[in-house]
Amino acid sequence: MRFDVLTLFPEMVVGAARYGIAGRAQEHGIVELSVWNPRDYTHDKHRTVDDRPYGGGPGMVMKYQPLHDALIAAQKAGSGSTKVVYLSPQGKPITQALLFQASRLSQLILVAGRYEGVDERFVDMDCDEEWSIGDYVISGGELAALVVIDAITRLLPGALGDEDSAQQDSHVDGLLDYPHFTRPEQVENCTVPDVLLSGNHADISRWRMKQALGRTWQKRPDLLNKKELTAEQEILLKEFLNQG
Ligand code: SAM
């Protein structure tokens, strides 16, 4: 899969994507990342990418033409199924399900805005969707693009050391992840739950499902309201609640 990011700060995206899972996935050819700077598609000697907003008011707005031309160049670099997404606080909230669908694309083009944002005609005419990383405003879309790239890369075959680990993550199945422990067995007066030391895989897996259900109930009851539990999961959640 390839990611193309339209950004005024290409080094920020390339630099941060060099680390961890995203960096390794690029090295192994699982993902390809290219950046496109609208400034390279300007035609004036000052390489102007922004201008004052019509109607007045604070801040600057990213101009249509450099963004449009950068997008055309990015589109030419890809093939197959493509989507153009403008990262925006006004977009649809990003969820694991949305990212899973996007992980099936051949090319995802992410547009990182700056200043007051981009000329609305670019959003209307050139972008397929707007996505938000949450109900707050950050200064530029680069961090949001990096969030998307990292979260999708985790879902691609071969990107994680252990194929199962993405399957067990929070939100994959509408639940939060179960708790994890590692050596030593005792920290102060807190010990690792006995079942995890038992070697009984059926018991461990039952305990983990019970914990996943219980902590979702405790921390994010809204998720449980959206999920239809199996009969077994209903029993495990009741057991968790009865155990206090
Ligand atoms: N004036 C815009 C508004 O209130 O809707 C905010 C512009 S913001 C300062 C600059 C850029 O940061 C946006 O164009 C967008 O690309 C990015 N951005 C800010 N908050 C975001 C969020 N929650 N999710 C995704 N991108 C965001």
UniProtKB/TrEMBL annotation:
Entry GO MF terms: tRNA (guanine(37)-N1)-methyltransferase activity
Repeat: is it a keyword of this entry? no
Q: Which InterPro entries match?
A: Alpha/beta_knot_MTases, tRNA_m1G_MeTrfase_C_sf, tRNA_m1G_MeTrfase_TrmD, tRNA_m1G_MTases_N, tRNA_MeTrfase_TRMD/TRM10
- Pfam families reported in the protein's UniProt record: tRNA_m1G_MT (PF01746)
**Protein name in UniProt:** tRNA (guanine-N(1)-)-methyltransferase
Subunit structure, interactors included: Homodimer.
Q: What's the top EC group for this one?
A: transferase
Job of this protein: Specifically methylates guanosine-37 in various tRNAs.
Main localization of the protein?
cytoplasm
